[in-house]
Every structure is written in C-alpha cells, then in structure tokens.
C-alpha cells in the first residue's frame, strides 16, 4: 500500500526551510526514523516518520520551504502505524519491573497495618485547660482508644479524617496543624530491635569519639591556627555509628552502594572510624588540616583533595541537602531510563539543624516528595545549637521541621527521647509530662543540658505536681541519665529501619542530640561549643571517663590515640560489620567505561559556510545536539538539562524526540499533542526539564556529571541556561562541582552584555567568564562561529568522557543571528581555537601601519567590520584574531611565566599569546562582550602595547546597536579607538582619531558606562 508522509503540525511556524534530507529513494524506513530536518529562524527540528516501508520517492530537497501538510515522501507502507512502534526491549522490561514494584508498593501501603498498640497512647490523654466538658472528651478519647486497639491505627486515622471532613462540611473552623506531640514517632512497642552487640558497639563508638577529639586537639596543640570541630561529631556519633554498623551498604562488584552525604564539620569522626578500620594511620590523623604535603586529611569532605575517600562536598551549608535530593532523583532517572539496575540503593544526607535555615536546605523538599523519592533519607542532627547559639531558642526546631517536611509530603520520624524516658512516658497517665515536653522551648532544653539533674528536676519536672511526682523516686543522677533519642542506639536503629522500609515518599529523621555530648562543663551544650577545638587536661580526663576509654592519665595528658589490637573483639567486630555491608564508606572509585568521542564528520556541517543563512551560535549548538543524538554511542548518554527555557533556546524539538523525564509518565494528553514539538513527558524521557530552578538544575547536572563515580556510568550532561543566571546565581554549586570533579558541559546561552538586547540589567551577562575563571578545573570558551563551537565541543567530549580528565566546560552561546563562514583551512586553526586564539583574517594591502585586533564572541564581528573600515577609509592594515578563550590563554601565560621565573637558567618557554603576537606588528587592541578584565587577562603575557575594551557597568535594555555604542564596543568606537591607539603609539597623526570622533558623534566627555 502506497502512503504519503506529510509535514506534521509544526506549531506557529510556516514556510520553514528544509536543511537536511536524511533518507533517499529505496531506503527502508522505520517508524520514528528521522526523515528531514527543518529549520526556522529560531530552531531546527527533525521530522520523524510515522510509517514504515520502502521509500518510493523523496519529494523535497534542501532549501525548500515547507508547512504543515507539505508532502515529504511517498512510501510503500508495511502497514505498521505509529501506535504499534515497539519499545526497546531493555526499556520495556525495566518499565514493567518498575510498574510491578510500584503497584505492589501501593497495595502494601493500603493493606498494611501499623502494629496494634497494646496500651493507650499519651497523645490522646493530654489534659487541656480549655476543655469545657472533660467527661465528654473522655468519652470520645476512650472510643478512639477502643478503635485503635480493636481495628488498628489505619482505622483510627480513617475515622479522624472523616470527622474532620464532616466538620469542614458543617462549617467548623478546624485548626490546622502539621505537628504531632513532642515525643518519638515510633512508640517503644513498634521499635525494631538491632541484632548488634550493644556493648561492643558502645566501646567502638567511645574509641571513635576519643580519637576524633584527640585528632583535633593534637592538631591545635601543634598549630593553634588550624581549627577544627569536636562538638558536632560528639553530638552525631551514634547517628553515624548505627548507620555504619547496620545500614549503609558500600559499593562493590555486586552492588552499587548507598550514597552518604556526611555533615561537613563532622569529618573528624569519619576519619576516626577509618583509623580504627585501618584505612588511615596515625600519621595521617596527625596531618588533619595539613594538606599541603600529600597525605594530609582535609578539613571537611573534599573529593578534590581526597579523591579516593570523600564522595561529596558538603561543608558549604545547604548544598548537601539540595545535592542529595537531586542525587536521589537522578538515581531514579537512571533506573527509569534503563541505564542502571534498581537495587534499592539509598541516598542518606546528614544535616545540621542550624543548616536547615539555609534556603537551599529546604528549597527542594517539595520535589523530593512529588517525585516520591523513597530512596532518600535525611537525618537532621538537632543538637539545638548552631555556631553562635540556639537554633530556635524561643521555639522548637524539631516541631518546626516536622511541620515543614510533613507539609511537603515527607515521611517524618522524630527521635526525641531515649529509652530511659520510655517508662516515664508510659506512666504519664495525666498527660502532664507530654504537656511540659510540648511547652518547653529549645533554649530551656539547651540550658538544662548545660547544668545538672537537680536543675532539670526543678525547671522541668517541677512545673506540675503530677510530673514532680513522676520522678519522685529518681535521684538527680537518674534524672541526668534521661537521654536524648539521637544518643540512643536503639531508638536510632528503629528509626533507620523504618526509614529504609518506607515506600512512596522520602523520609526525614529528626533526631534530638546534645552539642558537644560528653565534653563536660566547657564543651557540652554551651553556646561556645561549636568552636571548641582545645580541651584542657581536666576536660580530657572527663571525656575519657565519660566514655570509659582505656587510657591511663599519662596517656590522656599526652593526648594519645587509642587503637585496639587487630585481633581485639572491637576491631574484629567493626570490620566484620563493614564486610557484611559490602566494604568501607566513604570511598570514591570509578569503573565507568569511557565514551568514544564522536567521529569528526558528525560536525562536518558546522565547518562549511552557512552562506546567506543567518543563525545564532545557540541554534548551531541545538543542531549539533540533534546530530549527536544520531550517534548510537553518544545518544543515550546525553542528559540535556533545562530550567524552563527550552523554547528560548529553540530546543522544544527535543521534547518529542527524546521526551521529558517524568517519573510517572504523562497522565494527560498535552494541549499540543498533535504538534511535532508537543510537550511529551515520559517515564524514560531523557530531558531534565527542571522548571524555573537554576539551583536544582545545577544539582541535577552535578549528579549526572559525577555518575561516573556514583553509578559507574559515564554520562554527558549538558545544562543550558540563561548565562546571567548561571555562575552568578549558583556560584557555590559550581565551585562544589569543581570539587566533585564533575565532567560535562555548562552552556551559558543568550550570553553577552550587548548581545541579549532588550532584556536589561538583570539579564545581560558581562562577567560569567570571569566568575568561571575562578574555578580551577573549569575550561571556558566564548566562540563566535559554528565551526569553533564544533571543535571545542568535540574536544570537550574527548577530554572529559573519553580521556576521563576531571575538568568541565563552560561555553557561551548567543542569540544574535549572523552568517557563519567556512572553517579556515589553516592547519593551526584547530589548535588555536582550543588554546584560545587564532588569526582569522589579515588586511595587508598598504604595508604602512598595522594594528592587532583581538575580538571574542560577537564582538569579534564588530572587530572584523572595524578592520574593513580601517583598511578602506584609513589605509591601515590589521591582523584579526578570534579569541575563543581569554581564560585559557591566561592559564597558559601564567604557567609559562611562572616556569620561566623559577627556572632562570633554563631555556625560557614562550606563552601561546606570545607565540601568536610576539612577532606581529603594531599595538594590540582587544575587546569582548564582557568586562575589560576579561581581555585584560592576557595583558601580562605580551610585551607589546595592549589596550582593552569591554562592557563594564550595569546592562540595560535597548537595541543591540545602541548598547554596543553605549559600551563603546561597536564598529564605530572600535575604529575610533584603533586610530587613537595608533596615534598614542605615534604611528599616525592624532587628527584621524579626532575626525572619527566627530564623524561618529562620539562624546569624549561622556561618563564611563560604569557610572551610568
Ligand atoms: C554557607 C555556610 N555558611 C556558614 C558556614 C559556617 N558554619 C560552619 S558550621 C556552622 C554552624 C552549623 O550549625 P548546625 O548546622 O546546627 O550544625 P551542628 O554543628 O550544630 O551540628 C556554620 C555557621 C558554612 N560552613 N557554610
Ligand atoms: Mg546544630
């Protein structure tokens, strides 16, 4: 049967040019095979076939203009239609598996009942002063207790919900609360017990505590300037130990491993455990915070400095929580795309309660719930203190966090009270104890732990006769022993167990601890705990006794480490636990296979002239991606990441072609379903469409850019954003990306101060290259022409993904349309593009006066136009250099200069700038669409006269032409400045510059743009 393939609905576009024919007569065509590429002035998109069969005739040619309904080709159809397109085998089975698991999960959630409680819960006993009819209240509460014991919590929950609904319908104003009482979420009867040996675990924990503190104290005794923290890990030791002994599975050849984000300044505790495990030695502990000599231990988790140890940089507060959320999301993405197996791996993130005040910490919790990230567990160490004092002295951080997380849809587990409280809470028949717990603010809780048992008796239990009575048989010492949940391994174990089994939502464990736990009078629960890094002998002796560390007084005075014999039960136990959990943590390894860089011919189309056709570098880039998606090796590894700007960049064609990742697929028919670029969401979609969320998009990019270590699979993430909302917005994350040894591309699109015309001050980027240059392993380029982009991109893929070099690329692309020339035949061109500059044109007609003109990005084109004028109107010759990267040139110049200065007697090296310009004639004038500092960077590496122009100052909205005039980087200013420079160098008379100033209406008295 003969069929026709027509141009589908292509949205608002009409009469669009065909730029590529991808098939020919006689070809066998399958459904979804790309047939032609069409291109509007904004974007290019492939048209896929909707039928399969043999092509009878192709009815369009390159250059034709087509619209919806135009005939593309005739085909002898094999009868298949679009609906029956087969899903690739792998993807199909993975999706099936996941769907089965999901339905199972849902069913389980519905039918499973919480363990039936044997006794009445204190939550329904609390007395309330506002109660106008206590008897009636009692009736209701007893009925509820009856339901709980007869039919379980689920039924009680159902009835309460029905009551609330009914009350709403009757018009009652129901008070809204996201909080449960200030007690543990898991009642003692429901706690799952650890099978560990508690005595031995306590001894191990004590040693880890001791060695961690000793490490910090020793370092500061040697060099008081080194700093460090004892109090944080002291509060978190149990939280880490239970995880290490029982929950966190390491990566090995059978399992991908859990991913743990350690709280940054608890690093001493992590080193201390590694010491007992035999992974670090005493010498290394003694080089804590002394990293200049190799082998030192970094202050905080820094993969760059300890590349085999730390996995994630966390110490800049707020980044850890955000990165962990996107890490967990990215893990699901890889699973749903069929790129890794679903092994039930978890992402754990340890956070401080003070840290939760960072907007980044909570900023993405909605996404975690929405995407049902049940592979994510937050543990918030609520020691109630931050650096200066209490986190919420007048309130309750635990309750506040509970409300926020519960409201966002997380599974919340509060671990507030330790086991010694269990019997007290059980005996709290009147509810007064829970009432005090609810009423006491964090400032009081903190103060109590800085005092003693008598104080707690008076200030806490003393509030009501009922509670005074509850502890009447307790000594002050007994009261002092009443522990907090985060220091009780049983409570922590039960919480971790429950968290790991939770399905359908992320979990947050909010654990109450004591800052500086065990540090005695000078360090426990006092406002200065955070910065305590020295302990005097009395404190150390107290610490030893508090945790029964087997050291003599003399050894304590010498602050000796303690490591039991390899054959001791402690070391054997510790190693055995980790063996059972698959190995040690943290550890950074990679077994990812490299991706071969695509063949050069993929980029061939970018090396020929576009002729009359004008396009922006952003468009050229999108065409390049479309081509890369045809490379079977590369295609599945590309991860396009966009924060709601796909249409701005002409990338909407990707929606249909590779789909937008949506963990639940698409539950609706999109409004534009009939169109070629319809908004297609898919469970195995490839594009990460992050919404207006640059920090989230960057976090996704980091997850993808480090998949080579976290998942042993090399990916090619390409994050495309408005360049102004890149480094300026997410600078700290970009720095963390460098630390993480991320590999991938950042594309600052619509870049430049004058290139993005109408958008104004907050949109026009004139400095992102400078910010990027502060990151040592970030390689940056500001290309002008499509072939430059092609050379840079391919080399980036080769360096990062084939050769596994730990660098990442920042490339700016623009939205200014112009025609692109053919790539120069000069054999040095490619090298020059990559090193940062090459000669693109030379005017040599008059051989009298010459100037070197350096231009970058779109300003190169102004430079080229200026050179024409200089030649035609003033008989001045010039050499024009396309500078693709002032940053790269500076790096090279700096290195060469340093070598030469340090090796005065050796043969002196020549910088690339000098190689290019050393023998050239005339002064140098450089300009870019960025601040002068951008081109100034290479000034020291040439001994010629050097002048730089740029776009210093705030941007503003106007036409491109006016903006370039304003910033003095338009053709006219460049001509004038060139004449002035030559006059200053006494190569021509100054009258030419004066003339030009008049001719072009330039106001010499105009203030600097920075002042306007
Ligand atoms: C973005 C950022 N701002 C400030 C700091 C400095 N700083 C380090 S720890 C800390 C207090 C942390 O308090 P909390 O999160 O409660 O952790 P804790 O030590 O109490 O466990 C501060 C302010 C930082 N590391 N990062
Ligand atoms: Mg804290």
Give an overview of the whole structure.
The chain is an alpha/beta fold. 38% of the residues lie in helices and 13% in strands. Strands 17-14-18-19-21-20 form a 6-stranded parallel beta sheet, with helices on both faces. A 5-stranded parallel beta sheet has the order 9-10-11-13-12, sandwiched between helices. A 5-stranded mixed beta sheet has the order 22-24-23-25-26. Helix 2 packs across helix 3 (153-169), helix 4 (198-222) packs antiparallel against helix 5 (231-247) and helix 8 packs across helix 24 (694-705). The model is unreliable at 82-95 and 101-126 (pLDDT under 50). The structure holds thiamine diphosphate and magnesium ion (MG). Residues 352-354, 383, 385-386, 391 line the site of magnesium ion.
Largest sheet: 6 strands, parallel
* End-to-end Cα distance: 70 Å
Bound molecule types: thiamine diphosphate, magnesium ion
Strand order in the sheet with the most strands: 17-14-18-19-21-20
Overall pLDDT level: 92
The gyration radius over C-alpha positions equals: 34 Å
Number of strands: 26
Sheet-strand content, in percent, reads 5-15%
DSSP helix fraction: 25-40%
Question: In a few lines, what is going on in this structure?
Answer:
About 40% of the residues lie in helices and about 15% in strands. The protein is an alpha/beta fold. Residues about 80-95 and about 100-125 have low confidence and may be disordered.
How are the elements arranged and paired?
Layout: E1 2-6, E2 16-21, E3 28-29, E4 34-39, E5 44-48, E6 53-58, E7 65-66, E8 71-77, H1 89-111, H2 134-151, H3 153-169, H4 198-222, H5 231-247, E9 259-261, H6 267-276, H7 282-285, H8 319-336, E10 347-352, H9 359-363, H10 365-370, E11 376-382, H11 397-408, E12 411-415, H12 422-426, H13 432-439, H14 442-449, H15 453-459, H16 465-470, H17 476-481, H18 489-501, E13 507-512, H19 537-546, H20 553-557, H21 569-580, H22 617-628, E14 638-642, H23 653-658, E15 660-661, E16 681-682, E17 688-689, H24 694-705, H25 707-710, E18 716-722, H26 727-739, E19 745-749, H27 768-772, E20 778-781, H28 786-802, E21 808-812, H29 829-835, E22 837-843, E23 849-855, H30 859-874, E24 876-883, H31 886-902, H32 912-917, E25 924-927, H33 932-936, E26 946-949, H34 960-967, H35 971-984, H36 991-999
Parallel strand pairs: 9-10, 10-11, 11-13, 12-13, 14-17, 14-18, 15-16, 18-19, 19-21, 20-21, 23-24, 23-25, 25-26
Antiparallel strand pairs: 1-8, 2-4, 2-7, 3-6, 4-5, 6-8, 22-24
């Amino acid at each position: 049967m003969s069929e026709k393939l027509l141009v589908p609905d292509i949205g608002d576009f009409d009469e669009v040019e065909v730029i590529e024919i991808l098939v020919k007569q006689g070809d066998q065509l399958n459904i979804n095979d790309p047939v032609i590429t069409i291109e509007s002035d904004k974007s290019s998109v492939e048209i896929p076939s909707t039928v399969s069969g043999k092509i009878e005739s192709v009815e369009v040619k390159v250059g034709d203009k087509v619209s919806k309904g135009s005939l593309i080709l005739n085909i002898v159809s094999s009868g298949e239609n679009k609906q029956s397109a087969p899903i690739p085998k792998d993807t199909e089975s993975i999706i099936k598996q996941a769907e089965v698991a999901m339905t199972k999960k849902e069913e389980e959630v519905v039918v499973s009942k919480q363990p039936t409680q044997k006794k009445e819960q204190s939550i329904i006993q609390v007395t309330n002063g506002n109660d106008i009819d206590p008897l009636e209240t009692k009736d209701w509460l007893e009925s509820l207790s009856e339901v709980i014991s007869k039919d379980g919590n689920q039924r009680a929950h159902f009835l309460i919900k029905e009551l609330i609904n009914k009350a709403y319908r009757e018009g009652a104003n129901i008070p809204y609360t996201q909080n449960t009482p200030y007690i543990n979420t898991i009642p003692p009867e429901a706690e799952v017990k650890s099978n560990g040996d508690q005595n031995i675990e306590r001894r191990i924990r004590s040693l880890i505590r001791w060695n961690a503190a000793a490490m910090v104290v020793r370092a500061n005794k040697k060099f008081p300037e080194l700093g460090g923290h004892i109090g944080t890990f002291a509060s978190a030791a149990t939280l880490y130990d239970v995880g290490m002994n029982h929950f966190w599975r390491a990566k090995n050849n059978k399992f991908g491993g859990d991913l743990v984000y350690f709280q940054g300044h608890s690093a001493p505790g992590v080193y201390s455990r590694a010491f007992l495990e035999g992974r670090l030695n005493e010498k290394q502990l003694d080089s804590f915070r002394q990293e200049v000599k190799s082998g030192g231990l970094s202050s905080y988790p820094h993969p760059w400095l300890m590349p085999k140890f730390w996995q994630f940089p966390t110490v800049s507060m707020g980044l850890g929580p955000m990165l962990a959320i996107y890490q967990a999301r990215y893990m699901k993405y890889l699973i749903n795309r069929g790129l890794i197996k679903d092994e039930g791996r978890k992402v754990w993130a340890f956070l401080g309660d003070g840290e939760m005040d960072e907007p980044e910490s909570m900023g993405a919790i909605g996404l975690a719930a929405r995407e049902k990230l049940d592979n994510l567990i937050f543990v918030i160490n609520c020691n109630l203190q931050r650096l200066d004092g209490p986190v919420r002295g007048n309130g309750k951080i635990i309750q506040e966090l509970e409300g926020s997380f519960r409201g966002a849809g997380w599974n919340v587990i509060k671990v507030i009270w330790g086991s010694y409280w269990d019997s007290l809470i059980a005996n709290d028949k009147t509810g007064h104890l829970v009432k005090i717990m609810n009423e006491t603010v964090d400032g009081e809780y903190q103060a109590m732990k800085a005092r003693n048992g008598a104080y707690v008796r008076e200030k806490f239990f003393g509030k009501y006769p009922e509670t005074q009575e509850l502890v009447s048989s307790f000594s002050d010492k007994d009261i002092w022993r009443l522990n907090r949940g985060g220091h009780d391994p049983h409570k922590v174990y039960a919480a971790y167990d429950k968290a790991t089994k939770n399905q359908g939502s992320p979990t947050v464990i909010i654990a109450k601890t004591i800052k500086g736990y065990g540090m005695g009078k000078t360090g426990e629960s006092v406002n200065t705990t955070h910065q305590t890094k020295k302990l005097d002998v009395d404190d150390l002796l107290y610490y030893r006794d508090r945790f029964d560390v087997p050291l003599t007084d003399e050894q304590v005075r010498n602050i000796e480490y303690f490591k039991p014999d390899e054959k001791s039960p402690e070391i054997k136990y510790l190693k055995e636990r980790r063996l059972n959990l698959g190995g040690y943590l943290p550890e950074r390894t990679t077994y990812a296979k490299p991706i071969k860089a695509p063949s050069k011919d993929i980029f061939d189309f970018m090396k020929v002239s576009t002729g009359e056709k004008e396009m922006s570098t952003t468009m050229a880039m999108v065409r390049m991606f479309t081509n890369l998606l045809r490379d079977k090796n590369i295609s599945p590894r590309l991860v396009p990441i966009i924060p709601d700007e796909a249409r701005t960049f002409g990338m909407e064609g990707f929606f249909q072609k590779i789909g937008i990742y949506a963990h639940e697929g698409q539950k609706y028919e999109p409004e534009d379903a009939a169109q070629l670029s319809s908004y297609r969401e898919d469970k195995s979609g490839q594009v990460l469409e992050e919404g207006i969320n640059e920090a989230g998009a960057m976090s996704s990019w980091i997850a993808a850019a480090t998949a080579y270590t976290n998942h042993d699979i090399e990916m090619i993430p390409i994050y495309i954003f408005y360049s102004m909302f890149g480094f300026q917005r997410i600078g700290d994350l970009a720095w963390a990306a460098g630390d993480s040894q991320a590999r991938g591309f950042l594309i600052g699109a619509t870049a430049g101060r004058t290139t993005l015309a109408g958008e104004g001050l907050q949109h026009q980027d004139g400095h992102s290259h400078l910010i990027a240059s502060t990151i040592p392993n970030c390689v940056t380029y500001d290309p002008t022409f499509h072939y430059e982009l092609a050379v840079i991109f391919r080399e980036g893929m080769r360096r990062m993904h084939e050769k596994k070099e730990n660098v990442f690329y920042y490339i700016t692309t623009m939205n200014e349309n112009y025609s692109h020339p053919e790539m120069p035949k000069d054999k040095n061109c490619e090298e020059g593009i990559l090193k940062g500059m090459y000669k693109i044109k030379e005017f040599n007609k008059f051989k009298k006066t010459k100037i070197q003109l350096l231009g970058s990005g779109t300003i190169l084109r102004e430079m080229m136009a200026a050179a024409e004028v200089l030649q035609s109107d003033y008989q001045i010759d010039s050499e024009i250099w396309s500078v693709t990267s002032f940053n790269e040139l500076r790096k090279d110049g700096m290195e060469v200069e340093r070598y030469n200065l340090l090796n005065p007697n050796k043969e002196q090296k020549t910088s690339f700038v000098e190689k290019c310009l050393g023998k050239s004639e005339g002064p140098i004038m450089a300009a870019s669409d960025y601040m002068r500092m951008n081109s100034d960077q290479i000034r020291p590496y040439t001994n010629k006269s050097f002048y730089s122009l740029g776009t210093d100052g705030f941007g503003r909205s106007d036409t491109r032409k006016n903006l370039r005039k304003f910033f003095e980087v338009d053709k006219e200013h460049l001509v004038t400045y060139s004449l002035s420079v030559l006059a200053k160098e006494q190569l021509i008379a100054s009258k030419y510059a004066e003339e030009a100033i008049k001719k072009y209406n330039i106001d010499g008295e105009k203030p600097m743009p920075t002042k306007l």
